[in-house]
Amino acid sequence: MTFPASLSSLCAVQTRSISPENFDGSVGGGARATDGTGASCARDLGPGWKISPSVDVKAGETFDLANIDGAGKITHIWITTHTDNWRTLILRAYWDGASDPAVEVPYGDFFCNGWGVFAQVNSQMIAANPHGGFNSYWPMPFRTGARLTIENTSTVDVRVYYQVTYETGGDYAGEGYFHAQWHRSNPLDELVPHTILEGIEGQGHYVGTYIAWGVNSNGWWGEGEIKFYMDDDTDHPTICGTGTEDYFGGAWNFDVPGQGYTAFSTPYLGMPQVIRPDGLYVSQQRFGMYRWHVADPIHFATGLPRVDIQALGWRSGWRYLPLRDDIASTAMFYLDRPTARRPKTPSADELEVHLGATPVPDIGATPPREP
After folding, report:
1. Residue-wise pLDDT tens digits, 294-337
2. Quick one: where's region Disordered (predicted)?
3. How far apart are CA 158 and CA 82, in angstroms?
4. Which residues are 78's β-sheet partners?
5. Pair 104, 342: CB distance under 8 Å
């Protein structure tokens, strides 16, 4: 993955953008809609005045966010919907006409908000801004075409606002395909590490980890090591970390004396989310953490047999305590091919987050405003 040597360098590429105001990104194709989710609001103004700012994805259906023909590279994705939908929507990306997705991740987890509760993220690759404005800057090149979809696994229709910006006209032959995979252990099996990635074949580089970590017991939970089994590794990994908080760039339990767990967000690593018990239904602590290997990608020549992380706390006598936590991870990597081995698509029950009781709706509430 490379970035321009200089922002002022002239490039022989063209920028295009797909949104509900220009579904195919065509030249001069924006702001032409005569019907859409904003048509009633613009009834006094007519075409050109925010007629189609969003789409409604019906329950159980999949909507194509973008279909792009030819070679290009997605450079930015902005998207938003209400918090109730962040684990019920599945984001997918297909490259070069492949039938299997290279990206298959719950919407919120892809944007470092896996718990359905907003956390601001200020990183180079993912920015999550108030209140649920999600941005991705992962470069996503393709040679013959790209397709981005969003599936609504819930029982209610969902309104989604989005914009996909991409470039065409460049040479992308030497670039890897972007992949993202989601794994969840809920709860983690006894004395078994959580699998982040496994069975990946080909040349590439691992570039990112996001974990939504739910703690199911008292005490410290982040003593476990992350391990990267690369190329011909079998019993022992080439890369072995020293602890969970170390891998995500923190230290000493993320504990600032007098403040306890302290959220932080930096360009390449962070723990932007700390969800504390509320004394009622939210009984356990939950965390969101990311680590982007942008300045330090993990290169492999023939594959990544396995990436995993332990869940360890402490018991009496300064002994490690294996934990059985709720761990949901998203792994990002570039590969020399558009498809890779991936876990089975999660069911709605496997996606579900239990954060507390469902609030009683306010019948007289004001309808939500557009973003």
Report:
1. 999 999 999 999 999 999 999 999 999 999 999 999 999 999 99
2. 341-371
3. 8
4. 135, 163
5. yes
Which is nearest to 18 in space by CA: 82, 81, 69? 69
Instruction: Give CA–CA dist 187/225, Å, rounded.
Output: 18
Rounded to the nearest 5°, which phi and psi values hold at 90? -115, 125
User: What is the Cα–Cα distance from 71 to 169, expressed in whole angstroms?
Assistant: 7
What end-to-end distance do the CA atoms of the chain give, in Å?
32
What are the chain's domains? 54-345 (2.60.120.1390)
Model pLDDT, residue 357: 47
Residues contacting 117, CB < 8 A, separation 6+: 83, 273, 275, 355
Task: List pLDDT tens digits, range 224-242.
Answer: 999 999 999 999 999 999 9
Coil/strand/helix, residue 66:
strand
Enumerate the β-bridge partners of residue 43.
none
Structure tokens at 101: 């997705």
Rounded Cα–Cα distance for residues 19 and 169 (Å): 20
pTM score of the predicted model: 0.94
